[in-house]
Amino acid sequence: VGNENLHYESLDVEAFKLNDLNFIVDDSVENIVFNCEKSHSIIPQPDKWKRETTKRLRMNGEEYIGYQRKKSVVSHNVLRPPRNIKPTCVSQYCLKANNRFCSTFDETQRLDIFFTFWKATWEEKKTLACSLVNKIKKKRSTKGNSDDSRRGNTYEYNLKYKDFPPVKVCKKMFLGTLGLNENMLHNWIRESTNGLPKNSKHSLDKTINEISPQSLARKCALHTRVEHFNNWLKSLPKMPSHYCRQRSKRLYLEGPFYSYQEIYECYTKKCNEDELRPFSKCYFNNQMKINKISIFSPRKDKCDFCSTYEMNQISEDDYAVHLAHKSSAREEKQFDKSRAQKNEVYCFTIDIMQAVKLCPSLKASSFYYSMKLKCHNVKIYNLATNDCYNYWWHEGEGDLEASVFATILIKHLMC
């Protein structure tokens, strides 16, 4: 049975009596969640890498774990706070100046500018910040004719709200509204060219250089080979798992293949017929793993009838009837499940043959020959709601008789 919304319930020892059919389900232990093991995939998932996650959080202005350096040791354990809007400018000089308009922006407008800015991509942030800052040469030197001055330019900061023209504000107002760091902003402006960030210019040059007849021809040839491989892989007859469909999406080849080398030779033969260069064996094996295609099915994935057929002890007609019954049973189950989801019927599956649990369950050698209490259990799974109930009782309350399971099923339907 599936383990979605699994309810683990125990039968009360005093309330459960097989003679008068009175038992109560104890709800003291419920909603037990089973931790499934992490599935390992051959496909790289950069979005889940720690470095990429930190980078994404930083670019979105959220809280993240940053780096710090102490001499030659770099640690990734510094908690960086999220980006927040700073207080507005209250300088008296800005209020009196004719070329400063810090007071024209209220808190609602500043918040709108802040959230719009941090919803943009990193390149859009750079472009917007560089376009709102004017870099001009200094008007006068305060050190006379001396060349010792480190100041070479002056920055004019502007803010723009929606469709209104940008207006000049002070540096504190600009940085506080956008939630930026002064050093970060100066680096963006220093590396920009004609108001465009450095990365945007390089990516544009790279795109222009890549567009060439030779590169385009290679890409078209590679696309043709990939499409040919995918079509060939889809043409192979495959079948799903027999008993493991609930937890496995792996497909098994129906052809008479005994190794991946044999499948690869079949692929190279197809490429030679179509006059195409085949991919390498490494690429072929990786694609087989990515598409979850196998040759041999698990041992528990076959019933006794199918195993007997492989030993040539059953005729083709009997095996065809067996496959027809299998398909019919699967269709009937799906039909009953759809009716149960429409509240037309109640559809359950019952797993009776559960392992006997011993109480106490200890691995100490001194308890090996001690007498233990046998506990039985049965699972009832609702196909419509994906709820699973597990009923327990010990050998002092009842045995593995038909009346016990009938009582449990009747009382479960009455609950």
Automatic annotation (TrEMBL):
Domain of life the protein comes from: Eukaryota
Name the UniProt record assigns to this protein: Uncharacterized protein
Lineage, uppermost ranks: Eukaryota, Metazoa, Ecdysozoa, Arthropoda, Hexapoda
